[in-house]
């Protein structure tokens, strides 16, 4: 994916197992928790392109959040704040080769940023 592409969508849920069953039955999504991310089942749409995660609902995370791939989280956060955004979470590692961050735009919408490469083993489910 390239800078500016939507790469991932997290959906906040209160019951991971129930949500996995619901979205799998409704849309045919393949849902599995990859090794090392057992509390974060990932979904993939039938097109094998669209995907995201089912994440625990919590304070500050009550609506789906899209993640945009960027070349540099630091540069993107600097540009975002120059244009009225507020950083909610600074660059944080996901793995040795990938990072994420969150900001809110001037209207209060939470937007996630993703930088790097994350290799997730395919599941047999």
From TrEMBL:
InterPro entries associated with the record: Anthracycline_SecMetBiosynth, Glyas_Bleomycin-R_OHBP_Dase, Glyoxalase_6, VOC_core
Pfam families per UniProt: Glyoxalase_6 (PF18029)
Source organism, top-level taxon: Bacteria
Domain VOC: 5-116
Protein name from the UniProt record: VOC family protein
Species of the source: Microlunatus elymi
